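LAB NOTEBOOK - FOLDING QUEUE
OPERATOR: T.R.
BATCH SIZE: 2
PURPOSE: Compare the predicted structure-token outputs for two unrelated chains run back to back under identical settings.
PRIORITY: normal
REVIEWER: second-year student, initials M.K.

ITEM 1
FIELD SEQUENCE / FIELD STRUCTURE:
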Amino acid sequence: MNTRGYGPVYIEKGKDYVFCNEELEPVFERHDLEAISEKWNRGCSIEQIAIEHERDPDEIFLAIFHQAREGKIVRKLNYRKPIKHLKIKKNVPTVIEYENRRYVYEPQNIRR
């Protein structure tokens, strides 16, 4: 059965069909779809968006996929936030904040 045509799809009797993603809700309100696209483009994960919209993460993926096909997504699906590396200058004490605590790194040659 080819469902890629532009006319109505007719399912033949007697064949064993499987309806994919039947348990998912594919319908979104337009403003929700735009909000999902905006959050995705800003760097939110699918799981974060799903929690905020109280939807299944697979439904959010389908919404992002739909918006990408319409050209409304600018962030790639395999995008990862860059890891911030700590730049330490030579001979200068550096303050490092980790888990709401501050540490001072001092190179050995300037320690008191």
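ITEM 2
FIELD SEQUENCE / FIELD STRUCTURE:
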Amino acid sequence: MGNSNDFDAFVQEEQERLRQEDETREASNPLWGANSIATAKTAEAGRGEASKVVTDIISHAGTSDKVSLHHENVLPIDGLHCHVQTCVKHWQEAFQCPREYLVASVLAVASAAIGNSVRVKCGPYSNSVQLWCVLVGRSGLNKSAPVKEILSPLRAVQEEYKHKHKEMRNSTPKGETPPPMRRVLMSDSTPEARAMILRDNPAGVLNFRDELRAFFSDIGRYNKSGEASDLLSIFNNYTIDVARKNAGNVYVTEPFMSMLGGMQPDVLERTFNTDTFMYDGLVQRFLFAYPDNPKVPYPSGKEISNVDRAAWGECVDNMMRLRKLETKAIIRLGDEAATTYRDYCARCVELQNDCSDDYTSAIYSKAEIYVLRLAGVVQCMSNAWDKDYECKYKSGQTLIAGEAMDYAVRCMEYFEATALRVRDKLKGLDTRQQMTSPELLRELCRRFDVKSQSMLAQTLNLSPPYISQVLNGKK
């Protein structure tokens, strides 16, 4: 920064970027919240003079508060069915948790409820609606309690399966083996046990672990048995053939396993920074709900209403009825959805061609698949309240609406951003960490090669001695 013009240009560019992101997010989702100081101050200033905004930010932050020039990345809810939106809003009010955890959990549970009963057809490609979701956040952010609430309809179904299996065991003649217990949920398992569960439950399951690190650690432990390769096949619904010691092979056709669980940010690098995850394409197959700078919440004292529980339970139960269809339902893209999808794919292709590394390219490659899956889940959730929705699936009349695809694209843009954030963290390039005011000043001076400390102090309306102390590392 040879003079104040360079600094002013930097500030103006930063404000313009925030303004454009603000307008885009407001247009796509009026419910988004602005938590970062920079975003809030920009909005309050009415897009005022850039230097005044940054000066206000630094003055507000003091010498110890954290400052971030990053715009908040929020997972939208406006494309969900209105009943589901209401549930999410009430859950967030009660649990005071980041909305991303709720939306990602809703999508994962819905995908498991639908299971293997639906295929999203687009040209020569056919996709299941499997979703692999990871809720990233430090301890205390209230990941577990909301997920428990959202999982409750599936847990109720699993309890029913458990009760029926107990009755079958009691009625099975001595010496005969009772049929395996049906499942919609699974957790701890070896690769062999998991393959058997998937074989015995062709409609599909949700693999849920409150903390997913144990699951990922198992992948490394069993990697010599080909578990990583099997997981890649499961993601694509390809047949897997798992060898069991002294018991023959387990052959699973079109396996379906959605995943959901939590992980702390500091564990990400220790878990995913291996060749198996980084370079075999596994980590790029996960959707990370990774809130920007969340705060540990205060208790709200609010309860979950029975009305919300009943509405969400009805939605899940209705989606699970699709499992009773004799053949898999095929849903295709409507004209508007097809146009939106083509535009999104064109953008992903351009980004892949511009990528200098395979890891990042794989993020956008998987995004083209995931946006179809998300659109399928959202459409099925919307259809769950239609009285004749089963008949529509049977007749092949179900189409993905333009609104569902538009929402899926916006969700996927959120997951793209978090995937890049995870990539940067794994590669030691995480730029999302907030800076103190002195750190921010030193970074500005480093980036623009400040020659005049007095001019910088004048521009920011700070005292020259303070600037000197900051740049000499005394603050």
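REVIEWER COMMENT (ITEM 2): Residues 144-171 form the longest helix (28 residues).
FOLLOW-UP: none requested
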